[in-house]
Q: What sequence folds into this?
């Protein structure tokens, strides 16, 4: 199953073009990737981690898009930074190199600063891990995997309106489109892959949508006003002319961020699933977090939390195993408990005793010899 | 065709398992990659560039392995370094960042040294290009492509013998094996994918062979003596007991090289061929060489030469287009002749004349006014 693409699987098992197109669109929105680029087995494993296809794409109960965060997702980062203490967070300092030895880890940054620690948790997307120089090199399996686990592309847009007109007309605000709508030169298809109702908890009406995968990359070469025009025209096919009068139109293209490179998640190329566990297998003193290392809701925020907790427990297991509960130990892979890539330093006790004990005995002997006369006097009395 | 893997194509069009296994082995040896990891269309394009399958795998006339270089392939680099002048070659200086502006290119290295030039030719494997930080970022298409163009894995071994026993027995020295031979724990199959006769031009008899792709990675976790033992036992199945007495056994694992990462070439994952030309499309002042950018014998040394010449001509076209012949111009892509990602600086002449001309006129006016009386005397005579 890992040797075929998701496209092959769709063609083999879905008999109508409409069913195929729906799946292709859902894959585009979920991975920012074409079905033709994705390992079929990876998709199935991914869907298994989200309790099936329906919850993966759904914005209703237990669905991937069920919950939104008051004030936006950045609230999590902001609240965490208060808890951790801003002085403990170093921003704008990209890591270029991670070296490890028997004693610890040494992290070099782009601007020459160096940090040291006993252990390190790397919570980066796989493509960014691949860009760091590791010394010693990561295992061959891990490096082969990182090369075949690329990130997709997604441009997100949010259109705000004075009123939620779509609700008044009886629409949910959800649109799935396989390239329908207004096409520009250089683009194979219309811009929109999907939209959702994104009305805020304050009640400000908004529509959020995605320009995903190849089509998104093509539209990326157009200027914003052209994209906006085409997005609105496409939406007007579905909802009518009112869409042309938004309050605001905002876009975010994650592909432009130098240290992110894409959105929303990574999708495995075919042929690597046999070594997929490498993504979270500790390498000496290096432990792995980040949503791509999760086993449940991998690629989502839920997965990021799971992975972060697991990685923290793994490191805690090395420091203070006695603090871990049985439930904690279950979270940690058995492999982790056994793993020790960096051989433990030779036991210092042996050295200490082989050197100190003879020295101590010699010192005692010398002291006994020197104080012999004195002892004699005090302890036994001297025979004159 | 780009949406299916080579494995899917083999299963679809080859009816016997033996034919499939032969193709799988040939793909392993050529790309260091499994058929399941490779885009079928990429494989066909690759084979088109090598004039078909037969020449791709063959060591006879016009074949990929027809020619060898006296004294080894490093002779090319050594001879070139003499021609170029060793003082012009900077070694052990990995590039970390390439910035370009309207005036030129700025290359930063790992140890803080900085180099500047008008244009730059990058002749690196795609995975290593991906590890460099570009400012401005490479085009989205190019970055998406680099992520899906991974390098394979190959461990090469050379066994030297006192005599070419295999020739005496009537063997060519060529073996293709789909995982036959002695298997160790942790390895799915035997070590050898292929061997060839590698007798030197001095007549020193030798066999060269490959442990390729997944199987090669698995064998990589064993120690050398274990691998050697298993390689020799596997070869003895084919050739008899004499193989157990070699003069020497040497290995090279390119996966261990921090700035190479694999061997022998890159193989495209499915779904990206539509943007394959991005690999050689200049980006402002950055031009691309390296065998993966070649259109003929891509992935081979022949391709590296073609790509190098093309890139050199492209840069020459920017400097001194009048020196290029019609044949040279044909080598350069039309796209290159038109490309100008970095907009030309605003014409300095406009600025110069809008400022200088009025100033010049004012100065002339003032001079005329001042010298009015003098002119009058000399030129016309003064009316007293």
A:
């Amino acid at each position: 199953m890992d040797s075929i693409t998701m496209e092959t699987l769709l063609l083999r098992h879905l008999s109508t073009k409409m069913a195929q197109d729906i799946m292709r669109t859902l894959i585009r929105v979920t991975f920012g990737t074409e079905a033709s680029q994705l390992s079929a087995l990876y998709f199935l494993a991914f869907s298994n981690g989200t309790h099936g296809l329906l919850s993966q794409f759904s914005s209703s109960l237990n669905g991937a898009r069920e919950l939104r965060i008051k004030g936006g997702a950045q609230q999590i980062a902001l609240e965490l930074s208060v808890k951790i203490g801003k002085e403990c967070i170093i921003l704008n300092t990209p890591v270029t190199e991670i070296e490890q030895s028997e004693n610890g880890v040494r992290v070099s940054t782009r601007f020459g600063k160096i940090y040291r620690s006993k252990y390190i948790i790397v919570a980066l997307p796989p493509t960014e891990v691949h860009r760091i120089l590791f010394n010693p090199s990561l295992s061959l399996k891990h490096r082969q995997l990182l090369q075949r686990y690329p990130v997709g592309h997604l441009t997100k847009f949010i259109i705000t309106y004075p009123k939620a007109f779509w609700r008044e007309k009886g629409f949910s605000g959800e649109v799935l489109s396989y390239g329908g709508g207004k096409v520009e030169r250089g683009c194979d298809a219309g811009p929109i892959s999907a939209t959702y109702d994104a009305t805020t908890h304050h009640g400000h009406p908004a529509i959020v949508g995605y320009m995903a995968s190849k089509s998104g990359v093509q539209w990326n070469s157009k200027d914003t006003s052209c994209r906006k025009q085409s997005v609105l025209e496409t939406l007007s096919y579905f909802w009518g002319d009112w869409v042309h009068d938004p309050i605001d139109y905002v876009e975010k293209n994650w592909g432009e961020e130098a240290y992110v490179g894409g959105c929303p998640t990574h999708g495995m190329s075919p042929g690597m699933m046999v070594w997929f566990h490498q993504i979270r297998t500790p390498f000496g003193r290096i432990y792995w977090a980040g949503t791509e290392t999760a086993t449940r809701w991998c690629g989502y925020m839920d997965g990021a939390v799971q992975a972060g907790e697991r990685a923290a427990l793994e490191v805690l297991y090395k420091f203070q195993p006695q603090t871990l509960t049985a439930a904690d130990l279950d979270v940690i892979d058995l492999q982790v408990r056994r793993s020790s890539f960096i051989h433990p330093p030779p036991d210092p006790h042996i050295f200490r005793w082989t050197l100190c004990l003879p020295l101590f005995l010699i010192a005692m002997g010398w002291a006994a010899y020197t104080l012999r006369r004195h002892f004699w006097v005090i302890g036994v009395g001297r025979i004159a």
